[in-house]
Amino acid sequence: MDYILNVKDLKKYFPVRRSFVEILKKAPERYVRAVDGISFKIKRGETLSLIGESGCGKTTAGRTILRLIEPTGGKIIFNGKDITKIPEKKLRPIRRKMQIIFQDPYASLSPKMKIGEAIAHPLLIHGLADKEEAKERALKMLKRVGLTPEEEFYERYPHHLSGGQRQRVVIARAMILKPEFIVADEAVSMIDASMRASILELLNDFKKEYNLSMLFITHDIDIGKLISDRIAVMYLGKIVEIGKVKDILNNPQHPYTKALMEAVPSIARRKRKKKVKIKGEIPNAIDIPPGCRFHPRCPFAMDICRKKEPEMVEIEPEHFAACHLLK
Ligand code: SF4
User: Fold this and answer.
1) What is the ipTM metric for this complex?
2) Parallel, antiparallel, or unpaired: how do β-strands 213-218 and 47-51 relate?
């Protein structure tokens, strides 16, 4: 199998600042365990959605994989090469192949830069084209993402554009480098609902055209199912279930996955008999509950759940979940 990305036991902990009194008392260091040992692979040309509530660590996971923030532990293998610790200088040519589309198209673009220049800019930064060629390629890319007449759009500034149009610019800027892998972080969540389907379609078109692999980060399982080949469900820094879209939708195994589905009317309608309701909010990632970290909210929690962390169990080919009920 040709995997573009292999993430092994990836961790990202952020130290919590101690108060003066805590330092005097030599209180132990504490950490926000935002990503707490996640492992998964992405095949070439495949889209994996990373799904979970806000605060589950999915955005930190995406940024750590791209080395926009440094991992605390684990390994990131990209195109067969361990990039976990390679220095910034050596990482630069690899970065060209790995791009990110941020959630907020308003904050992603400089208000002082023309749209066309923003798209051409990465080509100049990476020394892949001179000014004239970069402009030509940016014009082609504007047309490709549906912002026509492209000459007119080239001269516009971000404030002239709608949210959906800005996100097309952000996608064009990422795609002009012909990446092999994209992290799309809540890429449609700030866009008007009527525009979401067309942005997802645009990403899907690029996926086919460039044989692009994608980590699609979203809190919305309904959106994840539209764009993904597989889904990974994340809870409090861990992946609790991973599998093909159809297996996760038709045969969810982890109580948290089932509860997430219940929150989505279009999926819940099909699953009405299997209602799983969870209580409370996601705890903070400093004081992670022992055993199964979902146990304080799980309606099926047993004694063992409070003591022992469940391991991933294979349910069917490529479908795994971590829950003591599955043994
Ligand atoms: Fe619930 Fe226990 Fe399964 Fe965790 S291991 S999801 S607490 S039943």
Assistant:
1) 0.99
2) parallel
| 3-class SS of residue 288 | coil
* Residue 268 pLDDT: 57
Q: How far is Cα 171 from Cα 315, in angstroms, rounded to an integer?
A: 36
Per-residue confidence (pLDDT) for residue 26, from 0 to 100: 79
User: Residue 56, Cβ neighbours under 10 Å: how many?
Assistant: 25
Q: pLDDT at position 287, please?
A: 87
**Regions of the chain where pLDDT drops below 70:** 265-274
For the chain, the straight-line distance linking the first and the last C-alpha, in angstroms and rounded, comes to 29
Ramachandran angles phi, psi of 3, nearest 5°:
-100, 130
- Ligand 1 atom with the shortest distance to the CA of 301: 7
For the Cβ of 301 lying below 6 angstroms from any atom of ligand 1, the answer is yes
Cis peptide before 289 (omega within 30 of 0): no
Q: How many residues does the chain have?
A: 327
Per residue in 123-177, pLDDT (tens digit) is 999 999 999 999 999 999 999 999 999 999 999 999 999 889 999 999 999 999 9
In short, whether 161's Cβ falls inside 6 Å of ligand 1 is no
- Mutate-to-test residue for ligand 1 from 302, 303, 306, 313, highest number of ligand atoms within 8 A of CB: 302
pTM above 0.80, yes or no: yes
CA of 2 to the centre of ligand 1 (A): 34
Angle at 198 between CA 146 and CA 243, to 5 degrees: 130
The 3-class SS string of 221-246 reads: HHHHHHHCCEEEEEECCEEEEEEEHH
Residue nearest to atom 3 of ligand 1 (CA): 323
**Residue 310 CB less than 6 A away from ligand 1:** yes
Say what the pLDDT of residue 277 is: 76
Q: Could you say which DSSP state residue 71 is in?
A: -
- Residues with Cβ within 8 Å of 135's Cβ and at least 6 positions away in sequence, in order, are 116, 120, 154
